[in-house]
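Run log // design_07
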């Protein structure tokens, strides 16, 4: 979602090729796309991830949404900048790290429902690799009962903190920089969109998210909707 936001924001024409989770490594190797790290379940093995882009104008293949964003700004400087001010890139990246820490409970809360949103091959792949890495089943890693309520409370408090950062520029616009969209907003919007896609627009979980912070998060993704197609 972050890369989709970035490409649309810059007005760059693109087409999407969907790749199933079990096929990502082979697909990347075939195209010469570099790994983005090491696999948690096999630290000696390279880990290949999407998104990745191929830019036919330069012949470049590149993966990792942050590296893609930097590449797009460098290669297409006459389009709107994802990082509006080069001097602020470090601050943007620090914000993203802080945001990810604030919403850390969210992925675990959605583990089980995520299995219903993917095909059978991908589910088998996730269970075989992630369950091995973490030493527990997806169901065991998904908090329930009182533990789930505790994780929801952590998530609410984390989003309260992020909302306070956003509120500093509310008089200028809905984004972290006010009226100028930037990488930080794409990261936040992408995370919120992931939760919407997993839980579903009519779910109690999504209604709960959109009720936090006076509807700020639903409003943010609405403001980014023009870059989401």
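design_07 sequence
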């Amino acid at each position: 979602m972050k890369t989709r936001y970035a490409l649309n924001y810059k007005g760059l024409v693109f087409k999407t090729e969907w790749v199933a989770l079990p096929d990502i490594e082979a697909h990347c190797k075939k195209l010469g796309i570099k790994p983005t790290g090491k696999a948690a379940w096999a630290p000696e093995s390279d880990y290949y991830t999407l998104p990745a882009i191929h830019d036919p104008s330069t012949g470049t293949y590149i993966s990792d949404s942050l590296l893609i964003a930097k590449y797009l700004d460098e290669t297409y400087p006459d389009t709107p900048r994802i990082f509006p001010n080069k001097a602020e890139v470090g601050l943007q990246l620090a914000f993203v790290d802080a945001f990810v820490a604030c919403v850390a409970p969210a992925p675990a809360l959605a583990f089980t429902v995520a299995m219903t949103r993917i095909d059978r091959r991908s589910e088998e792949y996730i269970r075989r690799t992630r369950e091995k890495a973490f030493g527990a089943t997806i169901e065991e890693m998904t908090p329930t009962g009182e533990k789930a309520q505790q994780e929801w409370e952590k998530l609410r408090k984390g989003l309260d903190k992020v909302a306070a950062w956003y509120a500093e520029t509310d008089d200028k616009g809905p984004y972290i920089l006010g009226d100028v969209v930037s990488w930080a907003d794409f990261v936040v919007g992408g995370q919120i969109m992931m939760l919407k896609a997993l839980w579903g627009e009519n779910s109690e979980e999504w209604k709960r998210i959109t009720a936090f912070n006076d509807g700020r998060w639903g409003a943010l993704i609405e403001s980014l909707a023009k870059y989401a197609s």
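The chain has two domains: 2-75, 86-227.
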